[in-house]
Amino acid sequence: MTIFWHRRDLRTNDNAGLFAALRKEKEVQPIFIFDKNILNELKSEDQRVLYIYKHIQKIKKQYKEHGSDLLVYYGEPKEIFKQLIAEHKISSVYTNRDYEPYAKTRDEEIAHLLEEQDIKFRTLKDHVIFERNEVVKGDGTPYRVFTPYMKQWKKELSDFHLKTYPTEKYFENLKQSKEASTLISLKEMGFSDEQTQDFPSIEASDKIIKDYENTRDIPAIRGTTRMSLHLRFGTISIRELCQQGRKNEKYFNELIWRDFYQMILDHFPKSADQSFKPQYDNIPWENNEAHLKAWKEGKTGYPIVDAGMRELNATGFMHNRVRMVVASFLTKHLMTDWRLGEAYFAEKLLDYEMASNVGGWQWAASSGVDAQPYFRVFNPTSQHKKFDPNDKYIKKWVPEYGTDKYPDPIVEHKKARQHAIDTYKEALN
User: Fold this and answer.
1) Is 397 a catalytic residue?
2) Which pTM value belongs to this model?
3) Consecutive sets of 10 residues in the chain, 429 residues long: mean pLDDT of each?
4) Residue 180's pLDDT is what?
5) For the chain, what are the domain ranges?
6) Any catalytic annotation for residue 361?
7) 265 vs 146: CA distance, rounded Å
8) Which is the catalytic residue, given 76, 240, 285, 313?
9) Among the CATH numbers 3.40.190.10, 3.40.50.2300, 3.40.50.300, 1.25.40.80, which is that of 128-163+206-267?
10) What is the third-level CATH fold of 271-428?
11) Which of 240, 202, 229, 206 has its CA nearest to residue 58?
């Protein structure tokens, strides 16, 4: 028997690892593991677990239609594989690569366990178009600046890289199952099965992609595709989205940013919780608890910051332009460690992906790869006037704006900006 292990690829179509397993092997048994090491860090109402669960149900049904089944486990992956080895004669295990530090450590342990049992462990590229060493500088070292990376990425790209994997052609090689296995419930794992947040459509809008550069910065309208959640869990294929996204270069470049940040995290795993530029860890963050609380609750007195934080808390989503503003505000105006903001986003964002989130936060804090210079500090009032001039976005999330109930700013922009620049300059010198 061959195992195909679903992880961040919750689909049966255009799946590189599944395609390779089905094409090369017989009796392919798909599995999914609800990983306790990850789930134990989450709150019971976390909607991402529900989102995953719904897609597990969907692909389980798809496998059943072909006489097979998706076996679903709950526990620590290493212990689950020990159980599988004891119960079945396994010749090989296939899966798609993941570039986050925990995932790489987990896969090394699984590979070692399987090797001891003479079981082949094959991993494939599915989550990105180009990974680790496929787009590098002439001397073989990784790019640290996006624009030259993007140019080289486009030079390397051919139709081959965006070609979809026709998994359906080989479904006859799925292991047949006479009766379906029972699926553990969310409640049994300690999670709520109540949906309290909307999940965006899995179809990317051609109209939004076409108009992307004109609408992407306006938070009051639906001007972005909202595909990030689906890319995060692989419920859509990056290859198919790139095929569609090529119609607009600005949108296409955003997908390349995603590859860039995945590559950076893979090469520099310490950047997950350390400044990419080490000297930025010398900054004496103030980490004022009252300021952090006001930021989290959307009560800073800066309307665009507050609207963004309230949107995040209510929906699990925040508009990308606003993400930059709130991150700059926390790290510069409030002199709060970017790691505290990154951790809050990790808790709240439906589309949380470590590589892009860390990349974005370190960009805002000026500590990251190809980051904005430390003396660039977003003016939240100017951002408000430029991108929400009619207060449509603000009024949706901050209905008390313009009344006596709305708080005064917790810091004064000019003073906070100068204080940040002076503090950064002194720490870096």
Assistant:
1) no
2) 0.96
3) 98 98 97 98 97 98 97 98 97 98 98 98 98 96 97 97 97 92 97 97 95 96 96 98 96 98 98 96 98 98 98 97 98 98 98 97 96 94 97 98 97 98 96
4) 80
5) 1-126, 128-163+206-267, 271-428
6) yes
7) 14
8) 285
9) 1.25.40.80
10) DNA Cyclobutane Dipyrimidine Photolyase, subunit A; domain 3 (1.10.579)
11) 202
CA angle, 144 as apex, 211 and 346 as ends, to 5°?
Answer: 65
- Candidates 338, 342, 353, 357; catalytic one: 338
User: Cβ atoms within 10 A of the Cβ of 312, count?
Assistant: 24
Pick the CATH number of 1-126 from 3.30.450.40, 3.40.50.620, 3.60.70.12, 3.30.565.10: 3.40.50.620
Residues 239 and 14: beta-carbon distance below 8 Å: yes
Structure tokens at 162: 């965006």
Where is the binding site for FAD, in residues? Answer: 212, 224-228, 251, 254-261
Token pair recorded at residue 247? 């119609």
Task: Give the pLDDT of residue 373.
Answer: 93
**How far is residue 286's CA from residue 299's CA, in Å, rounded to a whole number?**
19
